[in-house]
Amino acid sequence: MSFKPAPPPPSLQAAGSGVSCYVRQLKAGPVLCFSLNKAVQERAFGGPIAGKHLSVGIGEDEDAGRVRIALDPKGPVGVGKALKHTTMFRIGCWPGIPTTARPTRICEVIEIGEGFVVVRMPFGQPAPGQAAPAKPAAEKPAPAQAAAADPASEFGLRKDPPVERKPSRAAQIAAQAAAMQKAAR
């Protein structure tokens, strides 16, 4: 008999670049959230950056789809702490970035320098200064294209019909009390 070693279990940390982002919908509007792990913080910024400030630049022209994150003591973006020495920060969305909630995606790290890191956005949308390809107005999309354009199907999320919920026990008791009072009159 011959045996070969089994592969190790998959690890998200080993597969990732150390930078990830996602879009969240807040009351004030959509925000783009980034998180940086401990290794990226140490390589780019020399240590943890929680509580410090950043300046974030959006790539244009040949740098479209890239974001430059730089340490800046007077920067407008504050950095918060997250789990396991990870830090996170939020910025506003710009045209070309989805404005509906998106799950976390790993960003490709393009360059790490002293005090900055450049990443490629994982959403595949054009950045400012670069227009999206125009679709002919008269042409209707095929069902497969329409499903791909739907954000829920793009990420494998399903659309469930609304669920009719029963009133809570407290609501049922309140309704019974109101009915008894009405009957007593």
Write structural notes for this entry.
By secondary structure, this protein is α+β, with helices and mostly antiparallel strands. Helix content is 21%, strand content 29%. The chain is elongated, with a radius of gyration of 24 Å. The protein starts with 11 loop residues before the first helix and ends with a helix. 15% of the residues are buried.
What's a quick, concise take on this entry?
It contains 5 helices and 10 strands. By secondary structure, it is of the alpha+beta class.
What is the subunit arrangement here? single chain
Mean pLDDT: 77
Q: Percentage of helical residues?
A: 10-25%
Pick out the low-confidence regions.
126-141, 143-148
Strand order of the largest sheet: 6-7-2-1-8
What distance lies between the first and last C-alpha atoms, to the nearest angstrom?
A: 89 Å
Q: What is the CA-based Rg, rounded? A: 24 Å
Question: Descriptors for this entry?
Answer:
185 residues; alpha+beta; 5-stranded antiparallel sheet; 10 strands
Topology of this structure?
Elements: H1 12-15, E1 19-26, E2 29-36, H2 38-45, E3 53-58, E4 66-71, E5 77-78, E6 80-81, E7 87-92, E8 102-106, E9 108-113, E10 116-120, H3 143-149, H4 151-154, H5 169-184
Antiparallel strand pairs: 1-2, 1-8, 2-7, 3-4, 3-5, 4-10, 6-7, 9-10
